[in-house]
């Protein structure tokens, strides 16, 4: 049986190729290919390099790569894991002819993909009214823990009949015929009346996601169009808005203005009646 190096040289010459021809095709320096054919393993360096070169050269010449590696292993002992790690750390310096995308280019592409994903998530979060939407979460006062009360009442006054844009997701349990869900089920009034001292009224100057909890019970939740007015009665209320600049609040007849900035997700607590 011919030696390992002779097998490579014979296969190359049978194809009418020079060492330079082979090196150009597989991007391995011709000096290393010559070392393989001469079985001059120290000229290649660490065995991990030699195995990689042998496998690539064998595939190119139509030889069995695994058989070539096995014959190489009979002559050269395997190195320790620490030697393999050290050799792999300098692989780029020993193969300057190998072509491929640079690390900087790959890193730039990954950063761009992450930025695109982040912007898309922020936009979705803003539309859905989640905590991850654009803008900081602002809290006027700590939420007031109260026991659920069945006496909470809310009146709904539609100013501009409109529905959410096509494809907008509605919260679970929302009425399919309206852009949001009024948990109280109160009857609608023909026009908004004055706000009593124990009432809270919300007016939307812009489209926004809302959740209103009155006396511990969710009275309203959904996405509502500009022009919507909702009035609630009870002792305490917690209002959470997905676009705070478009949500004006009036408590007990006193107008408090917009809940926050454009695109901000804001939650505020209000006391509607004084304790007895």
**Count of beta strands:** 11
Number of domains: 3
- End-to-end separation in angstroms reads 105 Å
Query: Which structural class matches the secondary elements?
Result: alpha+beta
Rg, Cα atoms, Å:
36 Å
Largest β sheet strand count, sense and barrel closure: 6 strands, mixed
The proportion of residues forming helix, as a percent range, comes to: 25-40%
Walk across the major sheet and give the strand order: 1-11-8-5-6-3
Shape: rod-shaped
Specify the number of helices: 9
Q: What's the helix-strand series?
A: HHHHHHHHHEEEEEEEEEEE
Indicate the mean pLDDT.
Answer: 73
Our estimate of the beta-strand percent is 15-25%
- Poorly predicted regions are 94-99, 130-181, 183-190
What does this structure look like?
- The protein has 276 residues and is an alpha+beta fold.
- It folds into three domains: 4-94, lambda repressor-like DNA-binding domains (434 Repressor (Amino-terminal Domain)); 102-134; 138-271, no CATH class.
- The protein is 35% helix and 21% strand.
- The chain contains nine helices and eleven strands.
- The protein has helices at residues 4-14, 19-26, 30-38, 41-44, 47-61, 65-75, 81-89, 91-94, 103-128; strands at 138-139, 153-157, 180-182, 199-204, 208-214, 217-224, 229-233, 236-241, 247-251, 254-258, 266-271.
- The strands form two sheets. Strands 1-11-8-5-6-3 form a six-stranded mixed sheet, with no helix packed on it.
- A hairpin with a 2-residue loop joins strand 9 and strand 10.
- The longest helix has 26 residues, at 103-128.
């Amino acid at each position: 049986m011919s030696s390992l190096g002779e097998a490579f040289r014979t296969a190359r010459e049978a194809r009418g190729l020079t060492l330079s021809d082979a090196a150009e095709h597989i991007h391995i320096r011709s000096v290393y290919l010559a070392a393989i054919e001469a079985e001059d393993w120290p000229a290649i360096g660490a065995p991990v390099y030699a195995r990689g070169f042998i496998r690539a050269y064998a595939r190119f010449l139509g030889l069995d790569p695994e058989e070539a590696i096995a014959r190489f292993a009979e002559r050269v002992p395997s190195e320790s894991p620490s030697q393999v790690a050290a050799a792999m750390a300098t692989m780029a310096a020993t193969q300057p002819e190998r072509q491929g995308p640079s690390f900087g280019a790959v890193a730039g592409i990954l950063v761009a993909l992450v930025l695109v994903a982040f912007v898309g998530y922020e936009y979705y979060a803003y539309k859905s009214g989640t905590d991850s939407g654009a803008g900081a979460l602002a809290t006027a006062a700590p939420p007031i823990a109260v026991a659920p009360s069945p006496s909470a009442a809310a009146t709904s006054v539609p100013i501009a009949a409109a529905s959410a844009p096509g494809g907008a997701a509605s919260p679970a349990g929302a009425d399919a015929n309206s852009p949001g869900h009024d948990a109280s089920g109160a009857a609608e009034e023909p026009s908004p009346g004055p706000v009593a001292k124990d009432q809270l009224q919300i007016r939307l100057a812009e489209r926004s996601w809302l959740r209103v909890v009155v006396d511990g019970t969710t009275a309203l939740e959904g996405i509502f169009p500009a022009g919507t007015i909702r009035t609630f009665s009870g002792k305490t209320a917690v209002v959470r808005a997905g676009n705070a600049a478009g949500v004006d609040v009036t408590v007990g007849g006193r107008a408090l203005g917009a809940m926050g900035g454009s695109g901000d997700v804001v939650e505020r607590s209000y006391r509607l009646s004084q304790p007895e």
